[in-house]
Design goal:
The chain contains five helices and eight strands; from the N terminus they run αβααββββββαβα. It is α+β, with helices and mostly antiparallel strands and 176 residues long.
Length: 176
């Protein structure tokens, strides 16, 4: 009987996947915005709305108001903490699991002053997983991911990223 119990516990321990790294951090990079940010965004929106009204683009007016509303909501409501886990089988974000064969490579990037790891996916959607590091060290995450994914020291920014950086540098919504 005791031998049978040992075999059962051994089988159970084989089924449990080892977890090299697990941490909790906010679900997205978040930066508290000042009143100047909201005021500037409202003024730009009003200017765009007036121009679109003159050209009778009513549907586009509604779309812009909706986008401004979403950006205000994301800027005011801080994100909840997500549970991230890197295991030998893949990466788990909250209750969604990504197998290693679904993932391509990874790189680190600072977004709004928050250190993040970007894991690119094979599939077109979601395209990229953005995991905030929180209190976990960059080297720990790198050490856990290197056996399974390629590390990119530098990833060439896309046209949209370059355009967004140029706009935010030349036309900031708030002074820092």
């Amino acid at each position: 009987m005791p031998e049978e119990d040992q075999e059962n516990t051994h089988a159970v321990s084989e089924m449990e996947e080892p977890t090299p790294l697990e941490w909790e951090a906010p679900g997205r990079p978040f930066q508290k915005r000042t009143k100047q940010f909201y005021l500037t965004a409202v003024l730009i929106t009003l200017l765009l709305e007036i121009i679109l009204f003159l050209f009778s683009q009513y549907l586009l007016m509604v779309v812009i108001v909706a986008l401004v509303f979403v950006s205000f909501a994301l800027a005011t409501v801080p994100p909840k903490d997500f549970k991230y886990r890197i295991s030998t089988e893949g990466i788990m974000v909250e209750d969604r699991f990504f197998l290693w064969k679904e993932l391509y490579d990874f790189y680190f990037k600072k977004v709004d002053g928050v250190e993040t790891v970007h894991v690119r996916t094979q599939a077109y959607l979601p395209g990229e997983l953005i995991l905030t590091l929180g209190s976990v060290e960059k080297n720990e995450v790198k050490k856990a991911l290197i056996p399974y994914l390629s590390f990119r020291e530098y990833v060439k920014p896309t046209f949209m990223e370059k355009s967004g950086d140029w706009l935010s540098k030349n036309f900031p919504l708030e002074n820092k």
